[in-house]
Specification:
27% of the residues lie in helices and 25% in strands. The protein is α/β, with parallel strands linked by helices.
């Protein structure tokens, strides 16, 4: 007797589960229910319709119900809202919005993929027609139609997560005046403070108003008022504050909800009822690095969950590694990617850790479009286990993070990362790739071969009058240097050792910390015992300081910024 599989939710997780069931069982009866008008649309591509990168909203639709039936023999019912689950009877109750009728459907296996709902705070003015959320194709069409009106020029995007930044960027590319407002001190929480400042600067450089450390208080007709009392012009408001897992059906059915607020599932994505599976944004998942449950609204993991759930229905086992949270984003000219956990999260969890921040060319400097790539690797102390990494640059940041994500998935250490043999061509990388370089630096730090200070410590060192040694060449310092720093070029260092004090700490920097590392080692070899390399060096410090200097109108610690 063939199985009857019902799927609630027709986007990534639900549609993928249905398609996998069909590949495993040609005889199964598969019905997918979606309360909205569309199934199988490209959720992550929604913001790109606002700039015209995705010219027509129809392109966002991957497949319609007719195609599902023809290609997969899957019945996809749109405008069908599942209102309850009767798990004892193994039935669901469905309301057909088109016919206004209620029907009951029986199942052998039920798959929940309801996704997540945008967070809409209860604030004054939030229900006005010029306030939008972005969850599906209908939402993005409504927003696009509204903002293309001639009188809509000023738009406030509330929330600096991935969706908020992508919406803000694409509205700016469309020529709108955009204010991005984030309650936290920074956008894009998976990135550490020292890395995200590169992206803060990029948003400012592209003409966007970025407001951090401030939240939405109320919405007026042409403005929003923030918690600080500041008012920002806004003909339209986009709420991208975050999402909550849609657990309404699961809770009504008495299914177990996990400690994070998502639907609890086991290693096979089976809920507390053996005949009901759950996948996608609505569930909680086990994080391999944090070693605890979390929520992760990403399409890649949802696809894997869908396959594993369908396989389990047919007795196929899957190894459950847990998630590590790899993601990437384009922010105007920069590619940014992250995997695992950042340093802040590691320290909040009580994991003893350290990090290295290196800046190196993404390809051989002689090649066209060679650009600096900023890479931070976080590792456990003393084991060297790689906990996470973040990369930002105008080149292939995602490639480097994918390499490190693979290593994290297998529990690799910085020694493993150091020894990885990666492909090389001058057009694509350097012979010693930035990934290997970061691992070499981390290995030296872990072994105690030298000490470092991070870019976040530079301001306090300058303001306290610490001895800072700049080993760049004389021509370089004309374009800016840290206030109070002493310039002795690396090429002259060994002849001028008597100018450097041995009775106080010496902090060494260059442009990107490579020459300063050589200077640090040379000084240690000459008997200097209190030498520390400044990670990130002048370029990293300029990028780290810029956004706060501009927005807080504070005194810079350098004579001139130099971002080259």
């Amino acid at each position: 007797m063939s199985k009857r599989v019902l799927v609630i939710g027709g986007v990534a997780g639900g549609a993928s589960t249905a398609a996998r069931v069909r590949r495993l069982d040609e005889q199964a009866e598969i019905i997918m229910f979606e309360k909205g008008p569309h199934v199988s649309f490209s959720n992550c591509s929604l913001p790109y319709h606002l700039s015209g990168i995705v010219e027509k909203s129809e392109k966002l639709l991957m497949m319609d119900p007719v195609q599902f039936k023809k290609k997969y023999n899957i019945e996809a019912r749109v405008f069908h809202e599942v209102v309850s689950i009767q798990k004892e009877e193994k039935t669901i109750t469905v309301y057909d919005h088109a016919t206004k009728q209620t029907i009951v459907e029986a199942y052998d296996h039920l798959v929940l993929s309801p996704g997540a709902n945008p967070i809409v705070p209860k604030l004054e003015g939030i229900e006005q027609p010029h306030v939008f959320t972005v969850r599906n194709v209908v939402d993005i069409e409504r927003l696009q139609q509204y903002v293309t009106q001639e009188n809509v020029q000023n738009i406030a995007v509330i929330g600096g997560g991935f969706i908020g930044v992508e919406v803000a960027e694409n509205l700016r590319l469309a020529g709108k005046n955009v204010s991005l407002i984030e309650f936290a001190p920074q956008i894009l929480a998976p990135f550490d403070d020292d890395m995200v400042q590169i992206l803060h600067k990029e948003l400012l450089d592209k003409g966007m108003q970025l407001i951090t450390n401030d939240g939405l208080a109320s919405v007026e007709q042409q403005t929003v008022t923030l918690q600080s009392g500041k008012r920002v012009r806004a003909d339209a408001v986009v709420l991208a504050i975050g999402v909550r897992p849609d657990t309404t059906l699961a809770e009504k059915a008495g299914l177990k909800i996990g400690e994070t607020g998502g639907i609890a599932v086991n290693q096979n994505y089976v809920t507390s009822d053996p005949n009901i599976y759950a996948v996608g944004d609505a569930i909680e998942v086990y994080h391999q690095v944090m070693r605890r449950y979390t929520r992760l609204a990403l399409a890649g993991p949802a696809q894997k969950q869908a396959r594993a759930a369908a396989d389990h229905m047919y007795g196929i086992t899957n190894r459950h590694r847990g998630v590590i949270g790899s993601s990437s984003i384009q922010v105007f000219d920069y590619a940014a990617a992250t995997t695992g956990i950042n340093e802040k999260v590691a320290r909040d969890l009580g994991i003893p850790c350290d990090s290295v921040y290196v800046i190196a060319p993404d390809k051989v400097g002689l090649m066209p479009n060679s650009q600096p790539l900023h890479l931070k690797v976080v590792f456990e102390v003393p084991t060297g286990r790689v906990l996470g990494a973040q990369a930002i640059g105008k080149g292939n940041a995602d490639k480097r993070i994918d390499v490190i994500a693979t290593l994290i998935s297998f529990g690799g250490t910085i020694e493993d990362l150091k020894d990885l043999e990666l492909s090389y061509s001058p057009m694509y990388s350097t012979a010693k790739d930035v990934v290997n370089m970061a691992a070499l630096v981390a290995s030296n730090v872990l072994a105690g071969r030298f000490e470092q200070v991070h870019v976040s410590e530079a301001r306090s060192l300058v303001e306290s009058g610490a001895y800072i040694l700049d080993v760049r060449e004389a021509g370089e310092v004309k374009n800016g240097m840290l206030k109070g720093a002493i310039n002795i070029p690396l090429s002259e260092l060994r002849e001028r050792l008597d100018e450097i004090p041995k009775d106080e700490p010496v902090y060494v920097h260059c442009r990107s910390a490579q020459r300063s590392y050589n200077a640090t080692v040379a000084l240690q070899g000459a008997g200097f015992t209190r030498v520390k390399n400044m990670s990130g060096s002048y370029l990293g410090i300029c990028l780290y300081e810029y956004y706060r200097d501009v927005t807080e109108q504070r005194e810079p610690i350098m004579t001139k910024y130099n971002f080259k």
